[in-house]
Amino acid sequence: MMGSAVIIARREWAAYFASPVAVVFIVIFLAMQGALTFNAGHFFDRDQADLVPFFTYLPWVLLLLIPALTMRQWAEERRGGSIELLLTLPITPWQAVLGKFLAAWAFCTLAILLTFPFVVTVNYLGHPDNGAIAAGYVGAVLLAGGFLSIGAALSAATKNQVIAFVLAVAACFLLLAAGTATVSELLTRLSPDLAHIVRLASVADRFNNFTRGVIAARDVLYFASVIAFFLFLATLVVGEKRAE
User: Fold this and answer.
1) H helix intervals, the chain
2) Residue 244's pLDDT band (boundaries 50, 70, 90)?
3) Hey, where are the domains in the chain?
4) 134 in Cβ contact with 82 (< 8 Å)
């Protein structure tokens, strides 16, 4: 199974760098993270050698950029009719979905790792907790994987890239905003049990655990479950298209 998925992943990986998409995505990502971390995050005014501002804004930057990356993943295949050609190959829908996902996840991981100058900077300025920083990067990669799987499922469900983008942003926003203090306070007034359930479903608290240096099995399992669930949905949609 993995052999065919790897072939698809290589095809998609090459496609990223065959156009300006890869460079544009990485440049925008690094520019936004740099501006938010050092300017909006008042990095130098805080007088603390850590990457708290970086990890604070990272989920919101990924919230906007990852749907832009995934919106054409399947929507473009469906609109152009190339999905029929892809699915006539001796591969299963699951292998196609997994291959596309792995390529996008590897690409996002590369973009995240290219922020290493931020780590060099805080180590030059002080003595940060590099263990917590490393855990934060692990959480960032898992968060990117979760958002990518959501975007893949919604891209597979429509031929329109704009609709795929809007739906992915909305879905990721709901999962992210569910853990904010404002939403928690509002839901607590309505039902404390509901507030607790919604908070458990939020990616914010899970990601924040990583940024504090805690890599817990339950948080890793949470992101793995999100990825598996939405890739399963994407496989169902692509499988239905194959059966048409």
Assistant:
1) 2-17, 21-35, 43-46, 52-70, 75-80, 82-87, 93-113, 116-125, 130-156, 161-177, 181-190, 192-201, 203-211, 217-243
2) low
3) 2-243
4) no
Cβ atoms of 141 and 73 within 8 Å: the answer is: no
Q: What integer pLDDT is reported at residue 86 of this predicted model?
A: 62
* Dihedral-angle region of residue 36 (phi above 0 means left; psi in -120 to 50 means alpha; beta otherwise): alpha
> Which residues, 6 or more positions from 145, have their beta carbon under 8 angstroms from its beta carbon?
105, 108, 223, 227
Query: Do 143 and 59 form a contact (C-beta atoms < 8 A)?
Result: yes
User: Which residue's structure tokens are 């699951």?
Assistant: 94
How large is the C-alpha radius of gyration of the chain?
19
Distance CA 107, CA 140 (A): 13
The pLDDT mean for the chain works out to 85
Please, are residues 194 and 96 in contact by the beta-carbon 8 Å criterion? no
Each residue's pLDDT tens digit, 146-197: 999 999 999 888 888 889 899 999 999 988 887 676 776 776 777 776 666 7
The pLDDT of 52-81, averaged and rounded, is: 83
The pTM assigned to this predicted structure is: 0.89
CA distances 71 to 14, 82, 170, 180, Å, are 18, 16, 13, 26
User: Residue 160 — left, alpha, or beta (φ > 0 → left; ψ -120 to 50 → alpha)?
Assistant: beta
The CA dihedral of 142, 143, 149, 152, to the nearest 10 degrees, is -130
Give the pair of three-digit tokens for residue 22. 């890869």
The C-alpha atoms of residue 205 and residue 212 are separated, in whole angstroms, by 11
- What does the DSSP 8-state code read for residue 178? T
